[in-house]
Structure formats: C-alpha cells, structure tokens
Design goal:
Low-confidence stretches: none
Order of helices and strands: HHHHHHH
Mean pLDDT: 92
Strand content: under 5%
Shape: globular
Radius of gyration: 17 Å
Number of strands: 0
CATH architecture: Up-down Bundle
Number of domains: 1
Distance between the termini: 41 Å
CATH class: Mainly Alpha
Length: about 180
C-alpha cells in the first residue's frame, strides 16, 4: 500500500512538472510574461484591498458587511495557508526544475498551497455571492491569478487546485456561518 501511494504521488508530481513546463513556455514571450506578472502583483492584494474598500462606497454602506466578511475570510485564509506552507515545505517549481523560468519574485519560499489562488477564490466567491454584478470583473480576474501562478513558474497545478479548494471552503464557511 505504501509503495502504491508513493508511486501515485510520484506520478502526480511528474504530471505537475510536465504541466508547469508546458505553461511556463508562455514566459518566453515578453508580452505574456509581463501581463501575467501584472496580474500576479495585483493578486498580491492590491486588487482585493481596493475592492474591499470600494464595495461600501459604490454599493452603499449597507454592503459594508460584505467588506467585513471578505476581510475575515482573507485573514483566516492567510493563517491557514501559512500553517500549511510551513508544514509541507514544498519547493517552488523553478527550484526543482531548472528548465522552469521564474517570471516574477515569489512572496515566500514555499509553493503549497497557492495563497494567491486561495485568496482570489475566497474573496471572489464572497463578493459575487452578495453582489452578483461583480461577476464580470471578479471571476475572470480570479482565473487569471490562478493561471499566472503556474505560467510564472511559481506554483504547480496541484498548488493552485489546493488553493481553489481551500478558498472555496473558506468562502462558503464565511457565507454560511459568519
């Protein structure tokens, strides 16, 4: 059983590396690299902090609760992903495979899970649940953030997938229980 589990993880890692190499080829084109670098930097928090601040201004003070929920979800997500990263200590793809070109500087040392994706999904789902009119902006941006992490060589697809799962769980928990 242990040998089977190890071979499954080895196969998943091989697929992760293959997909990283495939997606990272886009970084060879300066325009694509620059575009996704900007998306990644905006996903560092600027986009979300601005959205959190503007929701009560644009949609009225009665929507302040959405900004508060997004803030609580964001802080909870930060704590969760920092704990997981410190426990897993998974090296970033560009550190494992020298054929993967890093497209922008990482915010921290480890890759699992993708904090950018976790926050993009948790903030995005929370905002869209309460203000569906934001879908046209938030959903494409969240997708681009997740893609940027793989294209820029900072995360494996499984890191992004974990970020999606955790971010969705946080958003749903925040919507249901907070």
């Amino acid at each position: 059983m242990i040998l089977q589990r190890n071979s499954v993880f080895a196969r998943i890692h091989q697929i992760d590396i293959y997909l990283c190499l495939f997606a990272n080829k886009a970084c060879q084109r300066r325009l694509i690299k620059n575009f996704f670098s900007v998306i990644s930097r905006m996903g560092n928090g600027v986009f979300w902090y601005l959205l959190i601040a503007l929701i009560p201004v644009v949609y009225g003070f009665n929507m302040l609760h959405v900004s508060v929920r997004m803030t609580v979800v964001g802080l909870t997500g930060l704590a969760i992903y920092k704990v997981i990263k410190s426990l897993t200590e998974r090296p970033r793809p560009y550190k494992v495979n020298t054929n993967i070109q890093v497209g922008t500087s990482p915010l921290d040392q480890y890759s699992f899970p993708s904090g950018h994706t976790l926050h993009a999904v948790s903030f995005g789902l929370t905002a869209v649940y309460y203000i569906p009119a934001l879908s046209w902006l938030v959903i494409p941006f969240a997708i681009l953030v997740g893609l940027s992490r793989i294209i820029l060589g900072l995360h494996y697809p499984t890191d992004v997938l974990a970020g999606i799962v955790i971010g969705t769980s946080l958003a749903l928990t925040g919507i249901v229980f907070f």
